[in-house]
Amino acid sequence: MKKLNISDAELELLKELWVESPLTSRQLVDRLRTRTQWGEPTIKTLLLRLLRKKAVRRQSQGKSFLYSAAIARDEYQYAVGRNVIDRLFDGLAGNFLTCLVRNEAFRPGELEELRRLLDEKAAEQQTTTDGETQPTE
To answer: How far is CA 97 from CA 51, 101, 125, in A?
Structure first.
């Protein structure tokens, strides 16, 4: 995925589309107005910017358009997380995880889930080809 420079405001609009898609611009305006101070022109400007960035797609439906996210939430989260790891942790995901585990308060069950995922990843990496460990990404 190419790097997308999504502003915090644009991200709020994308979050609405990740919850439910497709939506009309009227539906987006109504939803965002309930939790932001933005007017209709601001919301429509954000929508146009996301269209130009190809983060949102538009399809015609009669006299209006339907909008949906062109990037999945988990893809975007990974891309942004990977960028943080590369910039702040010298590209080492383990350093990022260590920092997170040492400093973050986790909800019940989160550590167990993390442990399960790490065990699965360790088992995957034990699979060898030609005697070398093959890391997976």
So the answer is: 34, 6, 18
